[in-house]
Amino acid sequence: VVQGVLATALETTMRLLHPFAPFVTEEIWQKLPKPPQLPGSLMITVFPRGDASFVDAAAEAEMKLVQDVAVGCRMLKATFGLAPAQQASVGIRVSGEKREILQRFREAIERTARVKAMIGGSFTGNAEALTARDEIGNDELTGVAGKEVINSEVEIVMPLGEIDVGAEKARITKDVAKTDKEIGGLEKKLGNADFLARAPEDVVAEQRARLAEEQSRKQRLHDALETLDKAAKK
């Protein structure tokens, strides 16, 4: 069975690559053991077609949720100045079916985002409590935490712990100024009728996407500043 799977994968890969690397793939094809019903030359084989029976919408939705949470953890760390390789404790507010999915893939989330993830119900975040427990129930934990909303059902919080509040506020304030400058430039460009008339549609769409991204980034930075202000008052 294993050999059959490997042979099918290699044979299909050769057919996929043939239009882009005809000589190399033809050479490999000639050396492959093949059943008699397959053509002797790769150039006259049928190009592979997708099989809808292999599409698993539920699995794709699960993996999108896991990816969104992992990316959210990394973005939250970056917002508060933590290096990608630096470990951080996070709590993930989620319930129901999505909670079970994230529990199953917790190790993957922790590995890719470099976090210690606690998954459960409602809490506000406390560094000691988060690192001391494997599960978060409906307990309200005290403390100030950064927050990243994935969707209406999933939210990530990260206790600020030993973050230098003053230094982070100064850094984020500078980032806000840079973001404002970037937004201003993009708005000016997109407000230019001549640019809109002359630029290709894909270029205009790219600039609009950049503007939306920068506006979203600015909102995250302002949220982070509000969180740091709360921490400074503690």
Task: Summarize this structure briefly.
With 234 residues, this protein is an alpha/beta fold. The chain contains 9 helices and 5 strands.
Word description of this protein:
Strands 3-2-1-5-4 form a five-stranded mixed beta sheet. It has nine helices and five strands; from the N terminus they run αααβααβαβββααα. α1 packs antiparallel against α2 (22-31), α3 runs parallel beside α5 (106-113) and α7 (165-190) runs antiparallel to α9. α6 links the parallel β2 (115-120) and β3. It has helices at residues 2-17, 22-31, 57-79, 96-104, 106-113, 127-132, 165-190, 193-198, 201-233; strands spanning 88-93, 115-120, 135-136, 145-151, 154-159. The N and C termini lie far apart (63 Å). With 234 residues, it is an alpha/beta fold. It folds into three domains: 2-49, no CATH class; 57-159; 165-233, Helix Hairpins, CATH 1.10.287.
Secondary structure layout:
Blueprint: H1 2-17, H2 22-31, H3 57-79, E1 88-93, H4 96-104, H5 106-113, E2 115-120, H6 127-132, E3 135-136, E4 145-151, E5 154-159, H7 165-190, H8 193-198, H9 201-233
Parallel strand pairs: 1-2, 2-3
Antiparallel strand pairs: 1-5, 4-5
Helix/strand/pairing category: alpha/beta
Distance between the amino and carboxyl termini: 63 Å
The low-confidence runs, each spanning 5 or more residues with pLDDT under 50, are 123-142
CA-based gyration radius: 25 Å
Number of domains: 3
Shape: extended
Hey, roughly how much beta strand do the residues contain?
Answer: 5-15%
**What's the average pLDDT?**
86
Spatial strand sequence of the major β-sheet: 3-2-1-5-4
